[in-house]
Design goal:
Number of helices: 14
Radius of gyration: 22 Å
CATH topology of one domain: Rossmann fold
Oligomer: single chain
Strand order of the largest sheet: 9-8-7-10-13-16-17
CATH superfamily of one domain: Translation initiation factor eif-2b, domain 2
Bound molecules: 5-S-methyl-1-O-phosphono-5-thio-D-ribulose
Strand content: 15-25%
CATH class of one domain: Alpha Beta
Length: 429
């Protein structure tokens, strides 16, 4: 689908645009006063779901504070949205879709400080293991901007601070630490270079990480689609789609590739308590791609499987230990147990960057504990009596013995064990 790009100037025209698309949920001229709208430099796009559904296309409204003051309006196919992208040179900034607002609003925000990136990762504006890694890499570029014209020792000091800081945003997805380590290594490999050269190289490294992630997603999709036959109904948990990566996703990439090759696939999306990544994000992505999707509450998976409605399960992963034990969104382990009980294959789709070979098995994977309010006040309403104890682990670990196969960009690891993982990922090319 060709990209239509229209350039306009000034806020008046931005407002005119909004009245043209009269069902925009917040008009541009009111946006700054609206209590729920972030500051003007964060306002990127707000369009109601009704608009999206009716037009079946994404209209992206950008209000960059550029030197020229240009406002840029773009129309693309609804599947052409970018989860995150970099704008400008090494002094530029990161733009990402605020996933906390989906599916009601599709809004892009800009991150111009390391604090912005840290906060976006922490509160799940950007989430999903690969996407977190890419965002953090760009966060390093942003965080070192203030020292890019200072001495190399000052630059290195700040680089260490920024990587440590970003590493503290979330603990489970190993892609975060993997990407930060790549950024550190890139700088470490440039002794004697100026801070400016080093900073420029960091931007190149971040772009390379983003590019590789896209390629890994495509490869996973193509390889994984061979596991699915036309007419299958596939259950997935959480969101392992384009919104969780810089590309087409991991688990969902498999479904997109299968559908693109003409296979008829139906998907059950677990809603994924407590933050509803399945209902809000997976269902949104699949609907936009025209893939039939049915949302079920997490506690319905057993019944749906018992009724014979599920032919395969496929999920993503946040960290996979050397033996193939895979951490993923809380509830995945339960789905794997159910799949085994009902004789349904359970697949995990993840890039090699999600493997942590320093951990022998899944018991060593750190599990993020999140705020009780996500359970007691999910989406604004109090659903638990005040004072009641709440336990909110964000991830669980599915033992490799319950995983039929792990789909990576390098090939499919059938019946994962330490040996099978090693043989596939470290095979000479
Ligand atoms: O807490 P989240 O939304 O970041 O959890 C995300 C998941 O568990 C995904 O399934 C995982 O990161 C794989 S994304 C390709």
């Amino acid at each position: 689908m060709p990209l239509r790009r229209i350039r306009e100037r000034g806020n008046g025209e931005l407002a005119a645009f909004c009245s043209e698309y009269s069902d925009c949920s917040i008009s541009a001229d009111k946006a700054d006063q609206h209590p729920t709208v972030p500051p003007a430099d964060r306002l990127r796009h707000t369009i109601s779901r009704r608009t999206l559904q009716r037009r079946s296309r994404l209209v992206r409204l950008c209000s960059d504070k550029t030197e020229t003051g240009n406002i840029e309006r773009q129309e693309t196919a609804l599947t052409d949205y970018q989860t995150l992208h970099w704008v400008g040179d090494s002094l530029g900034y990161l733009v990402l879709i605020d996933q906390t607002l989906l599916p009601a609003e599709l809004r892009e925000i800009s991150c111009r400080t390391a604090d912005d990136v840290w906060e976006a990762i922490r509160v799940l504006r950007i989430r999903g293991a690969p996407a977190i890694g890419v965002a953090a890499a760009y966060g390093v570029v942003i965080g070192t901007q203030p020292v890019s014209s200072l001495s190399r020792s000052e630059f290195d000091l700040r680089l260490n601070e920024v990587t440590d800081f970003l590493a503290s945003s979330r603990p489970t997805a190993v892609n975060l630490f993997w990407a930060l380590e790549r950024m550190r290594q890139r700088a470490a490999g440039m002794p004697g270079h100026s801070a400016a050269d080093c900073h420029q190289s960091l931007l190149e490294e971040a772009k390379q990480i983003e590019l590789e992630d896209r390629e890994m997603c495509d490869a996973i999709g193509l390889l994984g689609s061979s596991l699915l036959a036309s007419g299958m109904s596939v259950l997935t948990h959480c969101n392992a789609g384009a919104l969780a990566t810089a590309g087409s996703g991991t688990a969902l990439s498999v479904l997109f590739a299968a559908a693109a090759s003409g296979k008829q696939i139906h998907v059950f999306a677990d809603e994924t308590r407590p933050l509803l990544q399945g209902a809000r994000l997976t269902a949104w992505e699949l609907q936009n791609h025209g893939i039939p999707v049915t949302v079920i509450c997490d506690n319905m998976a057993a019944q749906v499987m018992k009724e014979g409605r599920v032919n395969a399960v496929i999920t993503g992963a946040d960290r996979i230990a050397a033996n193939g034990d895979a951490a993923n969104k809380i509830g995945t382990y339960g789905v794997a147990v159910l799949a085994r009980h009902h004789g349904i294959p359970f697949y995990v789709a993840a890039p090699s960057s999600t493997f942590d070979f320093s951990l022998a098995d899944g018991s060593l994977i750190p599990i993020e504990q999140r705020n009780a309010a996500e359970i007691t006040h999910g989406f604004g309403r109090c659903t638990v009596p005040e004072g009641v104890a709440v336990y909110n682990p964000a991830f669980d670990v599915t033992p490799a013995s319950l995983i039929t196969a792990i789909v990576t960009e390098k090939g499919i690891i059938h019946a994962p064990t330490t040996e099978n993982v090693r043989n596939l990922l470290f095979a000479p090319v």
